[in-house]
Specification:
two-stranded antiparallel sheet; 8 strands; alcohol dehydrogenase (NAD+) activity; ADH_Fe/GldA; oxidoreductase
């Protein structure tokens, strides 16, 4: 029942909340706005809205628009140098989870010497502590995927070593302010709405069945699962359905908070290995691919039968009576969202690399394996990949 909770981020949630940015106590006078290397934030007007709000607040801005779907260490280092060169005293992360994650690493490296991997725990990282506080961050999320707007972690890929590792931890990496405005999410395409929604779902599912789960994390996790189960299909089918967008965004924010209270399990380590070698693979898509085999494995171990039944009911299967009902509810949701046909082979993943992926998962983010209620061996990990493959 024990837990510790500290989430210092001020959350502004709801339609139109981006218009409140200018009235907030901002942490500086010159901001680097960080966006993706795509066109969405420019095309849908969110960049223009953010720039106007900052202008109203008397904040000068520069733009860094190079973040990719799986943000790279090299891009982080480029962004940090750009922030220093332009004398920026805070960052505005405007976009999805990749932008949030990259911004935390950029904020750290803008004020600290050396290479990002000097401060990464796991893999070839040196695990040094940050000597200087990162630049403050304002997070404006335009997707509902990882909840990164309310936690102190980000995931970065090292393109030199094929490592994808979580970075962060210090309280100073929590965003000062998080704006969760569902109106900014209405133009996300159906496919990515589904990928992101399932990522948020799995954060809460994993934290609910994880060994560190507690009374507080259970409350956040189950509420997030209920909201995903009730509204994700609607958000996928009609991106302009603002009520559905609001509830999925709410679930996403809860799923970010729950990770500060419990912990993701080895499923996330396994997927990070997949996308570390295959950068075009969206994180949520990779999680969907392995989810059925992964959770079935733990159901067969009977690690927490009652929790799987509770999650099945939270997903809408009110007559759930056995753990495998969760798998039935999960598969139904994937079918309704049109993501049940995802294939590893479409992203270049081959069966002969399964053990390489297993070893990478354990070497880079082995800590998440300790959140599993029973140990997961290398052979069992490889078997999950094999059962998921097509």
């Amino acid at each position: 029942m024990s837990f510790q909770m500290y989430v210092p981020t001020r959350i502004l949630f709801g339609a139109g909340q981006i218009s409140s940015l200018h009235a907030q106590a901002l942490p500086g006078k010159k901001a680097m706005i960080v966006i993706s290397n795509g066109k969405s934030t420019k095309a849908n007007g969110s960049l223009e809205k953010a720039e106007e709000q900052l202008k109203q607040a008397g904040v000068e801005t520069v733009l860094f628009d190079k973040i990719m779907a799986n943000p790279l260490k090299s891009t982080v280092m480029e962004g940090a140098a750009y922030a220093r060169e332009n004398g920026c005293d805070f960052l505005v992360a405007l976009g999805g989870s990749s932008v949030m994650d990259a911004s935390k690493a950029i904020a750290a490296m803008a004020t600290n010497e050396g290479d990002l991997w000097d401060y990464v725990m796991g893999g070839t990282g040196k695990g040094y502590a940050l000597k200087n506080d990162p630049l403050p961050i304002i997070a404006i999320t335009t997707t509902a995927g990882t909840g990164s707007e309310v936690d102190q972690y980000g995931v970065i890929s090292n393109d030199e070593t094929n490592e994808k590792i979580g970075f962060g931890g210090p309280d100073s990496l929590f965003p000062r302010i998080a704006i969760v405005d569902p109106e900014l999410m209405t133009t996300v395409p159906p496919k990515f709405t589904a990928y992101q929604g399932f990522d948020a779902l799995f954060h809460s599912v994993e934290c609910y069945i994880a060994a560190p789960a507690n009374l507080m994390s259970d409350m956040y996790a189950l509420t997030a699962i209920e909201n995903i189960g009730a509204y994700l299909v609607r958000a996928v089918q009609d991106g302009a359905d603002l009520e559905a967008r609001e509830h999925v965004a709410f679930a996403n924010t809860l799923s970010g908070v729950v990770m500060t209270l419990s912990g993701c399990t080895s499923e996330h380590s396994m997927e990070h290995a997949m996308s570390a070698y295959h950068h075009d693979l969206p994180h949520g898509a990779g999680l969907i691919m392995i989810s059925k085999a992964y959770f079935t494995h733990f159901i067969e171990k009977h690690v927490c039968d009652d929790r799987f039944i509770c999650m099945a009911k939270a997903l809408g299967k009110q007559d759930a009576a056995e753990p495998m009902d969760f798998i039935a509810a999960l598969v139904k949701l994937q079918e309704q969202c049109g993501v049940d046909g995802l294939k590893m082979s479409d992203y270049g993943i081959c069966p002969d690399e399964f053990m390489t992926l297993v070893q990478n998962a354990r070497a880079t983010m082995g800590g998440l394996f300790y959140c599993d209620r029973v140990p997961l061996s290398d052979a069992e990990c490889a078997a999950i990949f094999e059962k998921s493959y097509r």
